[in-house]
Amino acid sequence: MQLDAKIPAGPIADKWDNHRFEMPLVAPPHRRKFEVIVVGTGLAGAGAAATLGELGYRVKVFTYHDSPRRAHSISAQGGINAAKNYRSDGDSVYRLFYDTIKGGDYRSREGNVYRLAQLSNEIIDQATAQGVPFAREYGGLLSNRSFGGVQVERTFYARGQTGQQLLLGAYQALARQMKAGTVEAHTRSEMLDVVVADGKAIGVVVRDLVTGEVTTHSAHAVVLATGGYSNVYFLSTNAKACNVTAIWRAHRKGAVFANPCFTQIHPTCIPQSDEFQSKLTLMSESLRNDGRIWVPKEIGDQRMAGEIPPDQRDYFLERRYPAFGNLVPRDVASRAAKKEVDGGRGVGSLRNGVFLDCADAIARLGRSAIEERYGNLFEMYERITGEDPYVRPMRIYPAPHYTMGGLWVDYDLMTTVPGLYAIGEANFSDHGANRLGASALMQGLADGYFILPATIAGYLAGMLGRPAPSPDNPAFAEAKRDVEARTRHMLEAEGNRTVDWFHRELGKIVWEHCGMARSGDGLRKALSEIPALREEFYADVKVLGGADTLNQSLEKAGRVADFFELAELMCRDALDREESCGGHFRLEHQTPEGEALRNDDDYAYVSAWGWEGPGAEPTLTKEPLAFESVALKTRSYK
Ligand SMILES: Cc1cc2nc3c(=O)[nH]c(=O)nc-3n(C[C@H](O)[C@H](O)[C@H](O)COP(=O)(O)OP(=O)(O)OC[C@H]3O[C@@H](n4cnc5c(N)ncnc54)[C@H](O)[C@@H]3O)c2cc1C
Question: What predicted TM-score, i.e. pTM, was given to this entire model?
Answer without folding.
Answer: 0.97
